[in-house]
Amino acid sequence: MKKVYMIFIALVLLLAGCNTAKQSQDVNPRPKQLSYWNAHPETVPMKSRGRVLPDKRGENNLPTNAAKPHIESIGFLEPVNPAQAVSDVNEAARNLTYIGFFSYRVQPNGDLIPLNDASPLAATKRNHAAPMLVITNFASGNFQPDIAHRIFTDPMASRRLIHNVIRVMKQKGYRALNVDFEHIREKDRQLYNGFLATLLPQVKKEGFLVSTALAPKSSDNQAGPWHGAHDYAFHGKIADFVILMTYEWGWTGGPPMAVSPIPQVRKVVNYAVSKIPREKIIMGAPLYGYDWILPYKKGGPPAKRVSPQEAETFAYMKSLKIQYNNRDQAPYFFYTDQRGKKHVVWFENTQSAQAKFNLIKEYRLRGIGYWLLGEDFPRNWSLLRDNFNIRKY
Description:
Domain GH18: 71-393
InterPro entries: CFLE_GH18 (IPR041704), Chitinase_II/V-like_cat (IPR011583), Chitinase_insertion_sf (IPR029070), GH (IPR017853), Glyco_hydro18_cat (IPR001223)
CATH class of the domain at 69-286 and 349-390: Alpha Beta
Number of strands: 19
Protein name: Glycosyl hydrolase family 18 protein
Largest sheet: 8 strands, parallel, barrel
CATH superfamily of the domain at 69-286 and 349-390: Glycosidases
Keywords: Glycosidase, Hydrolase, Signal
Distance between the termini: 93 Å
Strand order of the largest sheet: 3-4-6-9-10-11-12-18
Pfam families: Glyco_hydro_18
C-alpha cells in the first residue's frame, strides 16, 4: 500500500511540473503600450464610427502632461468704430495668428465696399498678427443669394472682383483671404465651386493664403440655402484651410439654448474630417452668449447678445446660481427683471471653452476661429495659451 501511495505522489508532482512548464510557454510578456501623444499618429489610434480617437478617451479628460500642440487661431473683427477696433485688436492680437476683417462687401458688378480699416490694420501688424481680408455677399442686413449668383454667372463681374480683391490685399497689406458667401441658392453649388476654382488659385499665386467659411453640416444631405451650396470636400481640396461656423445653434431669433453645444459641434467636426484633411480645419467658437425673455415665443422679442464677462459679473452681483449643462457643455442661469419678466442666459465660461479646446486636441485640427472680437472674455485668452502654442507668421 505504501508503495502504491508513493507512486501516486510521484505522478501528481510530474503532472504539476508539466502544467507549470506549459503555462510559462503560453504567457507572453505584456507588450509595451505606445503613447498616443508620442507615437506617429497613423500607427496608434483606434477608429470609431470613422473618427480617429486617442486610445484612452474621455469627453473632457485628455492628457494634461502632453506637449502643447501648435495651432492657428483667428479672431474676427467688425471695425465699425476704428478706435474701439484698435482697442479690441490690442487686447487679443497676441493670442491670434490672424485677425479677420469682416467684411468687404461684394457688389453685383464685382466692386467692393471697403471698411474703415486703416487704424486696426496698423494695430494688427504691430501686434504681429496676420490681417485677413473677409469678402461676403452681405447687403441690406443679410447675406444676399442674388449677389452671389450674379458673381458666379457674370464673367466680367467675376474678373472684376478677383482684380479688386488682389489689388486691395496688396495695397493694404492683407496676408490672407477668407471667402464667406452664405445663403447661396442650393442649385448654385457647382457655380460656387467654379467661382472658387477661379478665384482662390489666382489669389494664392500672388502669395496669399486662401480660406473659406463653411456652414455647420453633419452630412452632405443637408439642403437649403444655409447648407446646400457648401461642398465640404471641394472646399477642403481648393482652399489652404476652412473655417467651420460651429456656433449660433442658440441665436437671437431662436429658442433658448447653448450657442455652441458640444454634441452638435462634434457631429459637424466628425463629418468635416471625413471630407477635409484635419490639418485644414479651423473650428469656430463664440465669444458671446444670449439673454432670452421667458417664456420664449417664436417672433417675440429677440434675445440680447451678452459677453461672457458681463454675464458672469451680473450673476455674481445678483447672487444668482450659475448652472452647467453637462450634455451641451455650457453654463446658464435664470433671473427675474424689474418688470417681473423671467430670463435665461446661456453664455461661455472657462469650462465650456476647455470643452472646445479638448475637441481640437482630440481631432488634431488646425485651430480655432472666434466670432467675435470685442466681447469681454479675458480668461479665455489665458486658457487658450495654457492649452496651445499659437503660430505666428
